[in-house]
Amino acid sequence: MHERDTGFRGPDGLDTLLNRVAEVEALFVLVRRIVPFVEDLVRFVHDTAPMLRKASESLKESSSKMPRAAEHLSNVTEATEIATSEVLDRLDRILQKLTEFDGFWDSYASFRRSFAASCRRLDQIAESLQDGRMYAAEGALAVSRLVTRLQGKMQELAAPATLRSETQTVRD
């Protein structure tokens, strides 16, 4: 048999052996210090693995639902745009009717002023007739003209009544 050369022969060999034993002892001390950390690390990985699996499954499930959710969102957006257009169209029609109605009120105010002036003129004519300053025929003719004018104004006023009924229909 061959003797194995360990490199520990001679007086220096003992020092080398003691140095190696000290290194091994230092290694054991290091291992003793590292083992609790490694144990904690292994425990952490063991404890978090189920949570990581659940998170992964949840992400896969959410990812599979994304296209459907995007499609629903697109449908909602389209429906909102259509509804908005309809509302704006209806508002335009209402504003148009209000503008027409505003014109009616202007006509009505003008009619009222004209009517008041006619009433004042009738009062003057009646007063003149009573005072005997006017011939009866001239007074009757003037009254007839005023009545004709008032009837024309009343017909003008009746035309916007149709406008009011249309405005009521739009409100409904």
Work out the helicity level. Answer: over 70%
Oligomer: single chain
Task: Quickly count the helices.
Answer: 2
Radius of gyration: 54 Å
Residues in β-strands, percent: under 5%
Mean pLDDT reading: 81
The coarse overall form would be rod-shaped
Unreliable segments (pLDDT under 50, ≥5 consecutive)? none
Order of helices and strands: HH
In this structure, how is the largest beta sheet organized? none
Distance between the termini: 117 Å
Helix vs. strand class: mainly alpha
- How many domains, in number, for the residues? 1
DSSP strand count: 0
Summarize the structure.
Helices cover 91% and strands 0% of the residues. It has 2 helices and no strands.
Question: Which secondary structure elements does this structure contain, and how are they paired or packed?
Answer:
Blueprint: H1 11-131, H2 136-171
Could you please describe the fold and organization of this structure?
With 172 residues, the chain is an all-alpha fold. It has one domain. It has helices at 11-131, 136-171. The longest helix has 121 residues, at 11-131. It is rod-shaped. It starts with 10 loop residues before the first helix and ends with a helix. The model has no long low-confidence stretch (mean pLDDT 81).
